[in-house]
Amino acid sequence: MIRWKIPTSFKSLNRTYIVEEIDEVAQTVLAAMDVHPNGLHLPEEAKIFLDLTSENQELIEHSFFHEWVHSALEASGYEHLSKDEEFVDEFAAILHQFFQTAEGDVQLEE
Length: 110
Hints:
This protein is α+β, with helices and mostly antiparallel strands. The chain has helices spanning 24-33, 57-75, 79-82, 85-101; strands at residues 9-12, 15-21, 39-42, 47-50. It has one domain. The chain has four helices and four strands, in the order ββαββααα. It has a four-stranded mixed β-sheet, covered by helices on one side. Strand 1 and strand 2 form a beta hairpin. Helix 2 crosses helix 4. The longest helix has 19 residues, at 57-75. It is globular. The model has no long low-confidence stretch (mean pLDDT 87).
């Protein structure tokens, strides 16, 4: 199994994204949207906000992947797919499952 942690930052096509706990800015955006998700992606700020108060680690991890998929799709010019929440959520679930279940290391010949 691959051991990994949710990063505090990452690069997506040379743009650095910051991952933070949901703050007042994110709460304001969420309130305006009248939704209560576990995460939020703000592409104009290159930030992902996560609700870290949940005791369900898998939910927090899935939320990270969900928001990461949004950022990857938008960074690569697929904004129309990023707006498809069902697609984004399913892709995030597949990616999350990969990281949860991947095992072993392939030995490449040099």
